[in-house]
Give the backbone structure.
Amino acid sequence: MIRFQTLKSYLQIAKLPLCLLVALSAGFGFVMTGNNDFARIIMITFSVLMLACGAAMTNSLQEYRVDKLMTRTAGRTVALERISKSATLFHARILFALGLLGLYVFSKELSALLAGASGVLVYNFVYTPLKHKTVWAIIAGAISGFLPPYIGWLAGGGTWFSTRVILVCGLFFLWQVPHYWLVVLNYKNDYIHSPLPSIIKEMGEKKLRLLVFPWVVSLAVIVHILLLFNLQIKPLAESILSIATILLIVFFAFVLFMLKKPRYQLLFITLNAYILLVMVVMSTSFFYQI
């Protein structure tokens, strides 16, 4: 029981569900190069998962004092001191080492290794400190959010710059911002009373709610622009994504503007499910030509 609880605590501070989504975006970036080396896709995805979990652990250390003050985060393992800060840092370093080593061994591209290290630096040493100073730290957070698919793209042999990789990175940049704002809206009382700068303090709930919608529409638009540049995506995949996009926009419009008390948690889940669907459908179409 003790060992199970310890494992559970580590998985919590590693933010495994979110990090899995981050890792899958790296695999998606790899697939978008047209490289169908399945074994390498798996290993690159796993390597980025290690990096993401290491960054999440480090973030838990950086913010444990603030976490104690917020209802949403007060129950986190480091905030409750169920695991020591030294143990958390030790395991974060192991995860970083495994992630970087995996990128070096399996990507065969130095650029992917550099992008992986850059992602950690931006997230832990740019975005996290900026959160204590400005509401626009979210821009740095969104940059760290589009680096995982870029890592996968480089690992798959993609060029540093191309129209397709710009669109792929833009997709995850546009997803990251409303993803975070929906968390803020869902826990608005926490963020209003938080010592950190918060956009909901600056704009209020109504204006922030209005701001979420055009970002979601922009996300949907870039998905379809990406389809235009992906000649390997087949009609069935295009149809699935077109229907999903229409449903996404209609659902967000209904919940944000028609309901007196919008269900932000449901929108958060829907947005994440949509980006996951985009990755799965496009990747499957690449592999199986459906």
User: Anything to note?
Assistant: The chain has one domain: 10-288.
